[in-house]
Amino acid sequence: MNGAQSQSPPLTDPASRPNRSKFNFWRWFWLGTIPVSLVWVWYDFYVPPNHVSWAKDYASGREQAAQSGKPIILFFTGKWCVPCRIMKRSVWADKQVAATVTKGFTPVMIDLDDPNAAETVSRYRVVATPTTIIIDPKGNVLERVEVGMGKMDFLKLLGKFNPSGAALAP
């Protein structure tokens, strides 16, 4: 019976062990690249909620501004616009910005892909996003910025139109 049993190679035979000392570049490349890419995509498209009381559309924003006498902030954006998402995350989600905007302005967010907003987009000749336009209640342009801004630049822009005349603290 002992002769009928097949003998397995000894566990210490170098030919039977996989070569673990060889570095597998592509395996480690993809194991590192995939998680970094997923984090980057999440960061680009994540937008936290904000506490700004947005008007439903341009017409309702104009009505609210006419009643309150506040200037209107038109923020032109798109769901596909990564710089807009970054601005929504770093500016619009900030509590100080939200308080300043709510106190002194009527904010309207306009999606360029919304067919109902085509007239407003055409009227203000918006071709790039993010575009921020501050208008008076009659619709006259007071200030126009066609790039994304950081919190401090945005607060400085709002400070030009602060109804109380006091400087905005950063």
Describe the protein's architecture and organization.
By secondary structure, this protein is of the alpha+beta class. Helices cover 40% and strands 13% of the residues. A 4-stranded mixed β-sheet has the order 2-1-3-4, sandwiched between helices. Strand 3 (131-135) and strand 4 form a beta hairpin. It is elongated and about 95 Å long. The protein starts with 24 loop residues before the first helix and ends in an 11-residue tail after the last helix.
Number of strands: 4
Tell me the strand order in the biggest sheet: 2-1-3-4
How many helices? The count is 6
**Low-pLDDT residue spans:** 165-170
Question: How much helical structure, as a percent, in the residues?
Answer: 40-55%
Q: Mean pLDDT score, rounded?
A: 83
Q: What coarse outline follows from CA principal-axis ratios?
A: elongated
What brief labels describe this structure?
170 residues, 6 helices, disordered C terminus, single chain, alpha+beta
Give the structure's gist in a few sentences.
The protein has helices at residues 25-45, 58-68, 82-92, 95-104, 118-123, 151-159, and strands spanning 72-77, 106-111, 131-135, 141-145.
Q: What topology does this entry show?
A:
Layout lengths: L24 H21 L12 H11 L3 E6 L4 H11 L2 H10 L1 E6 L6 H6 L7 E5 L5 E5 L5 H9 L11
Parallel strand pairs: 1-2
Antiparallel strand pairs: 1-3, 3-4
